[in-house]
Amino acid sequence: MTFRRSWTAITYHPALKNASITLDFNGTAIWVYFINANNAGTGVTTHTLANFTMDDDSPVLYQNVPNMTKLGEDFNALAYSREGLPQGQHRLLISNTGDTDAYMNFDFAVYS
Predict the structure, then answer these.
(1) pLDDT 10s digit of each residue in the chain, 112 long?
(2) Quick one: CA torsion of 107, 71, 98, 59, rounded to 10 degrees?
(3) Alpha-carbon span 2 to 76, nearest angstrom
(4) Please, which domain of life does this record's source organism belong to (predicted)?
C-alpha cells in the first residue's frame, strides 16, 4: 500500500548528473520510507541507491539490492531515520549521483 495512493519514483542515469528530493521540516526526528523494486524484467533498473544528507552532515548511503527471484515491490521499506535532532527547522536532502544507474522510489516521510 502506498501513502494516499501516490509516490515519486525516478531511474537515475549518470547523464542526469544528479537527482534529488529536499524535505524541510520542523521537529526532532524523521523517518523516510521507500518502495523497493525487485525483479521487473530484463533491462529494468531496480537497484536502489540514495544518499541522505541531514542539515549539511555527511551523507548516509541507503542501498537495496533487489531480490531477482521475486516479482513486485516491497512496500513500507524504512530507508532512513534520524532521531534526537535539536528542536527546530531541518533540511533533509535525498539524492542520487555517480556513475551507476539507480532506482529511487520515495513513498512518504514522517517527522515529529
Answers:
(1) 445 556 678 888 888 888 899 999 999 999 999 999 998 888 888 889 999 999 999 999 999 999 999 988 999 999 999 999 999 999 999 998 888 899 999 999 999 9
(2) 40
(3) 8
(4) Eukaryota
d(CA 39, CA 51): 23
> CB burial class (10 A; 0-12, 13-18, 19+) of residue 97?
middle
Grid cell in block for residue 89:
527547522
Q: Beta partners for 20? A: 95
Q: Do residues 18 and 110 make contact, with C-beta atoms less than 8 angstroms apart?
A: no
Does residue 82 contact residue 26 with C-beta atoms inside 8 Å? no
Instruction: List the one residue out of 81, 83, 79 whose CA is nearest residue 102.
Output: 79
Type of residue found at 77: A
